[in-house]
Write a structure and sequence with these properties.
- The protein is an all-alpha fold and 220 residues long.
- The protein has a single domain, classed as MetI-like (MetI-like fold, Orthogonal Bundle).
- The protein is built from 9 helices and no strands.
Length: 220
């Protein structure tokens, strides 16, 4: 069977794909930014000596990592509306992605923090640096160099996980490709463009992380 690729479908539905790509990009950028903050905060909490805070952080990480993202998404989307907290589906998706990825980021950053030799912390304390100054100027810069690659891997998963948001009707790449496929019955054209767009977004992420990694390495 000779399959003929219909380029006309791409041009006919190009506006749909532009909007879907924009929505997926926006979801990814916002969620990556917020997940980074959540992950760093909980990683720092897990490395502190305050037992109650460590218990909260541990419970959060274990709960998120032990349950599927789709279930978490449904819990947020349907659960919040059930108790009369009405949030647009876009932000429900951002919240689900942030909380899910934040737990994995927390473990990555925690491992990076704990890899810093204790002697450096003791030396900074002897030099009169406060704990926040030590964290900002001594620990976090070294941790960043160690965690860039695993964080990049985690954030590629986040970008791909935006496809799950199709389950609550968000018009991202997967949902849009599915709609166009239903209209045209041309799966290769519809989902092929979605695949290319996901690849494009992840290539941007990888190039960006490579640039950051090079700049950080120059500051050693």
């Amino acid at each position: 069977m000779n399959y003929v690729f219909h380029w006309s479908i791409i041009s006919r539905y190009s506006d749909y794909f532009y909007i879907a790509l924009y929505n997926t990009f926006l979801l990814s950028v916002i969620s990556i930014f917020l997940a980074s903050i959540v992950g760093v905060v909980f990683a720092v909490i897990k490395t502190t000596g305050i037992r109650s805070l460590k218990m909260i952080a541990r419970t959060y990480v274990v709960t998120i990592r032990s349950t599927p993202l789709l279930v978490q998404l449904y819990f947020i989307y349907f659960g919040l509306s059930y108790i009369n907290i009405n949030i647009p589906s876009f932000w429900c998706g951002v919240l689900a992605l942030t909380l899910n990825s934040g737990a994995y980021v927390a473990e990555i950053v925690r491992a990076g923090l704990e890899s810093i030799p204790i002697g450096q912390i003791e030396a900074s304390s002897a030099l009169g640096l406060r704990k926040l100054q030590t964290m900002r100027y001594i620990i976090l810069p070294q941790t960043l160099r160690k965690v860039i690659k695993p964080l990049t891997g985690q954030f590629t998963y986040l970008i791909k996980d935006t496809s799950i948001l199709a389950a609550i009707g968000i018009y991202e790449l997967t949902n849009t490709a599915n709609i166009i496929h239903a209209r045209t019955f041309r799966p290769i054209e519809s989902f092929g463009i979605a695949l290319a767009c996901y690849l494009f977004l992840n290539l941007i992420l990888m190039i960006g992380s490579k640039i950051i990694e090079q700049r950080v390495s120059l500051q050693k």
